């Protein structure tokens, strides 16, 4: 992609609300902080991912790219790739080139802790990152953006967000991340040294006009928010982690993230060449819908929209049965006669994210459309899958030691990779 990528698709354009005189229509709102589908004639619409690909200037992940991945790695693509949940990318083919040529790269992802526990939507990019790390055998850095949550969530205190980031490390450790391959850092703790020098270099490379056009900032925006993109971009420069990469500047990263985070890294790709670093590559995921439907994403701030990683089996069952939007008919008799729509049914949507068996996924959709599978049966299957997934993580979290938590956050823990040590 040539030219300034940040000018390809300003978020301000995507988020700009356009309400007609009757106030029954508006454009979809997709920013790093808010996600809402469009409203047409008073009816909320699902997130239009084709529109985001066009506006953000990304590329769709196609069968050819997945075939190349499988040929190079010997691994079947992850279910999120196979099912189009990871649907868009920037320069993923260049990462595959480096893997084929045995040249180094690393993974970078983040977690913004705005509550005491993650929900299942937070877990998706993290479990996918763990899978990528295992397939590629590369370093992973995980940024805990506690500072961002303080700046963008006025009700949260500094002590709260710092406590939340500490809790997040335990949940991450329960996914199986190991300190010899993974560095997890709080921005509040890691600020300084090479990291802060890169933040300064990035911040001087981005004008207020560019930030305003990209994120929709205005003259009333707190200056901390305007500066924050520099902090989120800095981990995409390998020299921010000299303990892992030494003095090298020629190692790019691959960033798996939800599509709403892309604006940060469009800016990052614009400033990398002047800073003599490699552009980051990205893999974009769709949003896990809120329990109420696919017009918005699951939110940690709204309990009734989310399934949390500390929810009990009874709570999971109650939330799915009570809140999960149904694609079925108003009565069982009508459902058996006319069938349901799995494309809007939240229980089925969750199964496409968490159930491994492709054949069962197809059978569930077909049976639901024919009315052979009821809404209650679909919800019951979803409840069982989520209870098993969350229960396994909860059990593993009990075995996480304080030493492991310390090692994961230690920038000087030995993380040695042969491809990095040699030019």
From TrEMBL:
Family: Belongs to the class-I aminoacyl-tRNA synthetase family.
Record's subcellular location: Cytoplasm
Gene Ontology BP annotations: tryptophanyl-tRNA aminoacylation
Entry-linked PANTHER family: TRYPTOPHAN--TRNA LIGASE, CYTOPLASMIC (PTHR10055:SF1), TRYPTOPHANYL-TRNA SYNTHETASE (PTHR10055)
EC code(s) of this entry: 6.1.1.2
Keyword vocabulary terms for this entry: Aminoacyl-tRNA synthetase, ATP-binding, Cytoplasm, Ligase, Nucleotide-binding, Protein biosynthesis
Highest taxon of source: Eukaryota
The protein, known as: Tryptophan--tRNA ligase, cytoplasmic
Keyword Coiled coil appears in the UniProt entry: no
Catalytic activities: tRNA(Trp) + L-tryptophan + ATP = L-tryptophyl-tRNA(Trp) + AMP + diphosphate + H(+)
Molecular function as annotated in GO: ATP binding; tryptophan-tRNA ligase activity
Main location: cytoplasm
GO cellular component: cytoplasm
């Amino acid at each position: 992609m040539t030219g300034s990528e940040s000018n390809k698709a300003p978020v301000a354009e995507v988020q700009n609300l356009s309400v007609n005189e009757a106030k029954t229509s508006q454009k979809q709102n997709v920013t790093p902080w808010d996600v809402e589908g469009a409203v047409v004639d008073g009816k909320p619409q699902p997130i239009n991912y084709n529109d985001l690909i066009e506006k953000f200037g990304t590329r769709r992940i196609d069968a050819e790219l997945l075939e190349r991945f499988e040929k190079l790695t010997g691994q079947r693509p992850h279910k999120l790739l196979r099912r189009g949940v990871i649907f868009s990318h920037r320069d993923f083919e260049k990462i595959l080139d480096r893997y084929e040529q045995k040249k180094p790269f690393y993974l970078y992802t983040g977690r913004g802790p705005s509550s005491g526990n993650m929900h299942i939507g937070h877990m998706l990019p993290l479990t996918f990152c763990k899978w990528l790390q295992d397939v590629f055998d590369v370093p992973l850095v995980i940024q805990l953006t506690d500072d961002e949550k303080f700046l963008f969530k006025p009700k949260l205190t500094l002590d709260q967000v710092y406590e939340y980031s500490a809790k997040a490390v335990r949940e991450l450790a329960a996914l199986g991340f190991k300190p010899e391959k993974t560095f997890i850092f709080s921005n509040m703790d890691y600020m300084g040294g090479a990291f802060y020098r890169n933040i300064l270099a990035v911040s001087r490379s981005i004008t207020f006009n560019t930030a305003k056009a990209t994120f929709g900032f205005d003259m009333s925006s707190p200056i901390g928010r305007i500066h924050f993109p520099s902090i989120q971009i800095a981990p995409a420069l390998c020299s921010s982690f000299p303990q892992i990469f030494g003095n090298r500047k020629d190692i790019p990263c691959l960033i798996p993230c939800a599509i709403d985070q892309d604006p940060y890294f469009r800016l990052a790709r614009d400033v990398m060449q002047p800073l003599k670093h490699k552009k980051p590559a990205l893999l974009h995921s769709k949003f896990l819908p809120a329990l109420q439907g696919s017009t918005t994403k699951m939110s940690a701030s709204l309990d009734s929209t989310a399934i949390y990683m500390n929810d009990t089996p009874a709570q999971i069952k109650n939330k799915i049965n009570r809140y999960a939007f149904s694609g079925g008919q108003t009565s069982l008799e009508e459902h058996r006669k006319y069938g349901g729509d799995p494309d809007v049914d939240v229980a089925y949507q969750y199964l496409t994210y968490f159930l491994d068996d492709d054949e069962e996924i197809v059978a569930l959709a077909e049976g639901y459309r024919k009315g052979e599978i009821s809404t209650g049966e679909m919800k019951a299957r979803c409840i069982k899958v989520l209870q098993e997934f969350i229960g396994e993580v909860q059990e593993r979290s009990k075995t996480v030691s304080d030493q492991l938590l310390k090692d994961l956050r230690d920038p000087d823990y030995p993380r040695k990779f042969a491809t990095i040590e040699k030019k």
